From TrEMBL, chain A:
Belongs to the GcvT family. GO terms for biological process: glycine decarboxylation via glycine cleavage system; methylation. It comes from the Bacteria. The keyword Methyltransferase applies. Residues 6-257 form the GCVT N-terminal domain. Its EC number is 2.1.2.10. Substrate binds at E195. The glycine cleavage system is composed of four proteins: P, T, L and H. It is an enzyme of class 2 (transferase). Pfam families: GCV_T, GCV_T_C. Keywords: Aminotransferase, Methyltransferase, Transferase. This is Aminomethyltransferase.
Automatic annotation (TrEMBL), chain B:
The keyword Manganese does not apply. Belongs to the GcvH family. It comes from the Bacteria. GO terms for biological process: glycine decarboxylation via glycine cleavage system; protein lipoylation. Binds 1 lipoyl cofactor covalently. This is Glycine cleavage system H protein. The gene is gcvH. Its cofactor is (R)-lipoate.
Amino acid sequence: MQRTALYAKHLESGAKMVDFAGWEMPIHYGSQLQEHHQVRNDAGMFDVSHMVILDLVGAQSKAFLHYLLANNVDKLKESGKALYSCMLTPEGTVIDDLIVYFITDTQWRIVVNAGTRDKDIAWMQQQIATFDATLTERDDLSMIAAQGPNARAKVLGIMPADEVAIVEPLKAFYGAFVNDWFIARTGYTGEDGFEMMFPNEQAHKVWDALLVAGIKPIGLGARDTLRLEAGMNLYGTDMDETTSPLVSGLGWTIGWQPADRNFIGRSALEAQKAAGIPQKFVGLVLEGKGVLRSHMKVICEGGDGETTSGTFSPTLGVAIALARVPASCGDTCEVDIRGKLHPAKVVKPVFARNGKSVLN
Amino acid sequence: MSNVPSDLKYTKSHEWVRDNGDGTVTVGITDHAQELLGDLVHVDLPEVGTEFGAEDGCAVAESVKAASDIYAPVPGVIIESNEAVQDSPELINSDPYGDGWLFVMRVDDEDALGELLDAESYKAECDE
């Protein structure tokens, strides 16, 4: 199994390590629930060095992204701005979701999932062959996400003034190079914070400094409950190569305009749209006690659906799920939990952000 | 190493059993089991009066991570379920052998108690 540069630091912090996509990663450091609340209420840090950082350069790098990505990088007008996008098969199903940072028209940074590393790189290298552009994996970099209402202030508090001058003004979804670091105001928790990429050799020093600043280590367990509450999709469970973004709550990430941008999967998505989308992606809130999990049957008016992710929401104190249900599904449904039907409310697929519930 | 009190009996599926000496047993999950599960957020306990055979699934403990079946350690009928853990499942994490108990059974066949593991054997099971 592979280990990040922070492996020894996780053990020092009392992590319980598990296999995650071939990486030995911390699932929690004692209590997943406490870690969840730590991020919603204060500040926590995640080692996300297992994620794959790719640098794209070249005269035709923008043209390549126009072709590769379902979202349109032309939306990125200012250097440092980030865009969330899917990478689709020609059949219009999802190969992976990713973040692309616009540096210049000939320089981009892309972050893809760890679990899809090999197939993503193979696919991208195959598609890039006819473009004057090159893609380089940056496994010399580590990545820590500091997240929570106090995360920004705590990170800025330990930065030299010249770096604060660059990082403090960053708006949400923008990043910037700071010497050999790249720091972006992005994340996967529904909270404010930074994702920071820096050379592996600095990882231990950075971790220790963040700990001293009062940013506590958070495991992958809480990362999952945080992202689910925030209504952020997880590749492999909420969408994959068998599902279209249009039935995965990701329609908003498709850059339909301009109509003549011929990205991979476009014609398939247009055909799906023309035929009518039979399903929709929703949030579920369980009415009574119990816990929702992925792949539970959902019974609603107009047919059956399925949960794609589910958990107990520490912020709301009830079970929540993301689910793919018939388009005709109303505002209530029932979920089959071990053979018993439990009533649930159907809501927009976002439950909690910035420390609190977004449900009415 | 997790706590394994020597006055209790155990199952391979990580239930503990306290012989109350009056034909009933109190059942819970071990410290080792709660550690493996992580923070508990929900338990489904059996209704009073329900009859179970040994190793029948009779309850479910759910942590944020996963759902785990709990098995009747001996054949018998449920005479009490711990309502406190249904409201506060975290009691199972904080006090697995005390306030975190799950249910009391009237034992059909007291000989079945002899087939349970003692603390030493259970420890050995966990170390494997």
